[in-house]
Amino acid sequence: MSRKYKFHNADGVYFVSFAVQGWVDVFTRNEYKNILVENLDYCQKHKGLELFAWCIMTNHVHLIVRAKEGHLLPDILRDFKKFTSKAIIEAIVENQGESRKEWMLYRFRYTGKFDNRIKTYKFCQETNHAILLDNTRLIEQRINYTHENPVRAMIVSRAEDYLYSSARDYAGEKGFVNVQTTL
After folding, report:
1. Helical H runs in the chain?
2. Can you say how many angstroms the Cα of residue 80 is from the centroid of all Cα atoms in its chain?
3. How far apart are CA 80 and CA 73, in angstroms?
4. Between these two residues, 118 and 62, which has the higher pLDDT value?
5. Any idea what DSSP says for residue 133?
6. For residues 7 and 131, what is the distance between their CA atoms, to the nearest angstrom?
7. Is 0.70 topped by the overall pTM?
8. Beta bridge partners of 51
9. For the chain, how big is the Rg over CA atoms in Å?
10. Helices 73-94 and 101-112: crossing angle, nearest 10°?
């Protein structure tokens, strides 16, 4: 893994992006996105996650985050991804109306068999693509990039109209997850 995607500054604000294995469009269903939202909230309350911006796309997630003092961001993200992966796989298995169930489970089982640490399914890609945002200009650029993702994908015409993003918070509305809009 490249050095530029490592967490070098324990107190730093990072842009983090991670994808579903094979870029499978899992997050087209709100019930799967809601699992991720609930886990973000949990990590803020119990794991030391500070969240400044977020966006859930169909097959990947963008976060702008920092760890509170006494916590380590790589540990928080590891736990976040592990819990989210297990919960979403379980939701897929239990979802009787999921028309793509067998195909998705096959894809995650297939990628899991190549990783000795995985028992059955591998949901998230390994990397977090962590980029240190060490100045205000970079932070603002990445917040805009994060919020404009659904606009570029033509899901919405205005970033604040996308429910699964912190763009609503930055537009003065209440989003699904509490975010810090100032550093």
Report:
1. 30-46, 73-94, 101-112, 136-152, 167-170
2. 9
3. 10
4. 62
5. -
6. 8
7. yes
8. 65
9. 16
10. 140
